[in-house]
Design goal:
The longest helix is centred in the middle third of the chain and has 13 residues, at 50-62. Helix content is 23%, strand content 16%. The chain is elongated and about 55 Å long. The chain has 100 residues and is of the alpha+beta class. The strands form two sheets. The chain has a two-stranded antiparallel sheet.
C-alpha cells in the first residue's frame, strides 16, 4: 500500500507516486517501448520522449498507409501536453503535433 508503506517513493512528473522499486520494475519489464517510460495511471511520459517520437517517425516513413487512408487527419489529445488537435492517421500510432 503506497500510503502506509515505508518503502521509498518517487513522484512522477504527472504528480502520481510509485514505489521506487515498482518504478524500476516497470522500466525493466515493459515489452512495448512506448509504455516503458509512461505513468501506468495517466500515460504521461516519465522522462524524455524524443527518442520514441523519432522512432515513430522512422517506422511511419517505412510503412505507408493504404492509398484510401493517406493524408487523412484524425482528432487526438496528447497525454503529455494535453494539446487537442488534428494529426496524421497511421495505424502504427498518432503523434502529437506539438512533439519535438
Amino acid at each position: 500500500d503506497l500510503f502506509t508503506s515505508t518503502a521509498e517513493c518517487r513522484v512522477l512528473r504527472c504528480g502520481h507516486t510509485m514505489h521506487r522499486d515498482c518504478l524500476r520494475q516497470l522500466m525493466e519489464h515493459q515489452h512495448w517501448p512506448a509504455a516503458s517510460s509512461r505513468c501506468p495511471l495517466c500515460y504521461v511520459s516519465i522522462g524524455d520522449s524524443s527518442a520514441e517520437w523519432a522512432q515513430l517517425d522512422r517506422d511511419i516513413a517505412m510503412t505507408p498507409m493504404p492509398t484510401q487512408y493517406r493524408g487523412q487527419k484524425v482528432g487526438a489529445m496528447c497525454h503529455d501536453c494535453h494539446h487537442t488537435g488534428e494529426t496524421a492517421l497511421h495505424f502504427l500510432g498518432l503523434k502529437c503535433s506539438n512533439a519535438q
